[in-house]
Amino acid sequence: MRPANPDLAPRPGLSRDEMEALQRRVAEAAVFEDELPFDPASVALDDPGATTLTGTDASSDTGPPLIAGIDQAFLDDRAVSAVVVLRGGEVVERAYAVSDLDLPYIPGLLSFREGGPILDALAKLEHDPDLLVFDGSGRIHFRQAGLATHVGVVCDVPSIGVAKSLLCGTPDEDVDGHPKGWNTPIRADDAVDAVGGHPATPETVIGYAFQSRQYDSQPIVNPLYVSPGHRLSPETTVDLVSRLGGDYKLPEPTRLADAYADEVKAQYE
Asked: How far apart are CA 115 and CA 11, in angstroms?
């Protein structure tokens, strides 16, 4: 797939001020309302846990949408970016790229470390996904432009951020010890900037804490922090993540991408 907004793509050689300024441009271009090419009710995993290519006709305009899970593994100063595309519960395509890393991890600037390598992998796809699901934040971000927002805007594809920890924002409720399926809004706090037409008041919902899995006898599994990346509302975002859940904590698309990244990494080690 080709970037729709290549001028907003993360690139090396920028100062911190320049990177933050680019993130604000990305946030201004982001849409945090539903603009989807499919009905969210059509999203389901008919066969959670599918791990092999099926030969399904991914070019068909009928049936469930094409959903791409994206994750990475790391080889010293290189990133292994993996994309797994599903239609329903079937894997229809996989692609990866091994790319040099230009930056160390800097909180709030993850897209400048990992966004370029992810775009390298997306460029190898034969078909264009209808939805991108990232291991990382979207609108839950200091400038409302996390990894899922940045890459989603560059590609102009609906996107979701699924993070394992909370970068910023305040949950409405305590997040510990809840049953599977529980969720609560994450609202903007003082660490979140208002950008363009996107407010950051204490009433602004920027994502959700979502309990994707839990043990009944000992509730010790932490929630996920899900947020819209682009062309999605927070409410539809948490609904889609729920629909994409399988037998594990992570949504099935990113779980499969994580496993594929590790598989590719092992070939290079």
From this structure: 9
Known binding residue 71? Answer is yes
Specify burial of residue 100 (Cβ count, 10 A radius: 0-12, 13-18, 19+): exposed
**What CA–CA distances, in Å, run from 219 to 177, 212, 235?**
5, 12, 25
Contact assessment for residue 161 and residue 138, using Cβ atoms and an 8 Å cutoff: yes
DSSP 251: B
CB of 34 closer than 8 Å to CB of 232:
yes
Dihedral of CA 186/190/191/194: which sign? positive
The CATH code of the domain at 6-267 is: 3.30.2170.10
Q: Which residues pair with 53 in a beta bridge?
A: 91
User: Strand, coil or helix: what is 133?
Assistant: strand
CA distance 63 to 87: 8
Instruction: Please tell me the pTM assigned to this model.
Output: 0.94
Phi, psi of 133, rounded to the nearest 5 degrees: -120, 120
230 by DSSP, 3-state: which?
A: strand
> What does each of the 269 residues of the chain score in pLDDT, given as a tens digit?
999 999 999 999 999 999 999 999 999 999 999 999 999 999 998 654 444 444 444 444 567 999 999 999 999 999 999 999 999 989 999 999 999 999 999 999 999 999 999 999 999 999 999 999 999 999 999 999 999 999 999 999 999 999 999 999 999 999 999 999 999 999 999 999 999 899 999 999 999 999 999 987 777 899 999 999 999 999 999 999 999 998 899 999 999 999 999 999 999 98
Name the residue ranges covered by the structural domains of the chain.
6-267
Strand partners, 245: 251
